[in-house]
């Protein structure tokens, strides 16, 4: 299945998934508690330094910025209209830092390792009715489908531009929703074909379900 993971021999890659996930949780909490622009800028520089240490290509950072640029612009304009530009800038810094840090964890951690760690954390909660296998499966699918949906969005956008159509949020949303629902249906059929049982001891690996450009291959 498609993964954001970029294999490198760095300190960040060698950290245990649990450590990175815990650090991400702590940093996200701090980000939402801090409202100082200088501190947020320092945190963003810290994340950039971690990217450097992890040897993540700058092109990956540019792709992330491009993907969320429209969303950030809308947030900034909204804040200018209803509050002020400083508040908008603060929110953009906070959101950008959080997305970059979360992406760093995804780029330096195998999805199977990440999900396995979360499943281990949830094992004690089985007694209160939480199915750790089901939760980890859902989380795995959600994480891995993020880049897939992004590619589908680019395909729809390019197809509309090739036809000379004006692209807007509504024109992009409907084909994307249809393709996503169709893809989800194909994944469900693939799971049924494999007789997947979330209550059984099924391990989630990168080879369970393969997502390719043309669809889902069970």
UniProtKB/TrEMBL annotation:
One of its GO terms (cellular component) is plasma membrane. This is Cobalt transport protein. The chain crosses the membrane at residues 20-53, 65-85. Belongs to the CbiQ family. It is a multi-pass membrane protein. It is found in: Membrane. Keywords: Membrane, Transmembrane, Transmembrane helix. InterPro entries: ABC/ECF_trnsptr_transmembrane. Its main location: membrane.
């Amino acid at each position: 299945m498609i993964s954001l993971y970029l294999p490198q021999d760095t300190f960040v890659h060698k950290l245990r998934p649990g450590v990175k996930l815990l650090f991400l949780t702590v940093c996200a909490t701090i980000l939402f508690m801090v409202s100082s622009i200088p501190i947020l800028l320092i945190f963003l520089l810290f994340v950039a330094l971690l990217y450097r240490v992890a040897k993540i290509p700058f092109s990956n950072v540019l792709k992330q910025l491009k993907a969320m640029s429209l969303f950030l612009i809308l947030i900034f304009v909204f804040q200018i209209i209803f509050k002020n530009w400083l508040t908008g800038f603060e929110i953009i810094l906070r959101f950008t830092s959080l997305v970059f840090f979360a992406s760093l964890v995804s780029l330096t951690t195998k999805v199977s390792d990440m999900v396995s760690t979360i499943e281990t954390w949830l094992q004690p909660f089985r007694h209160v009715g939480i199915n750790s296998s089901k939760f980890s499966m859902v989380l795995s699918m959600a994480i891995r489908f993020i880049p897939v949906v992004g590619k589908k969005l680019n395909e729809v956008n390019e197809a509309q531009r090739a036809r000379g159509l004006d692209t807007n949020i509504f024109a992009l949303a409907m084909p994307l929703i249809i393709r996503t629902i169709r893809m989800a249906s194909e994944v469900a059929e693939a799971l049924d074909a494999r007789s997947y049982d979330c209550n059984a001891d099924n391990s989630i690996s990168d080879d369970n379900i393969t997502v390719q450009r043309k669809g889902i291959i069970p």
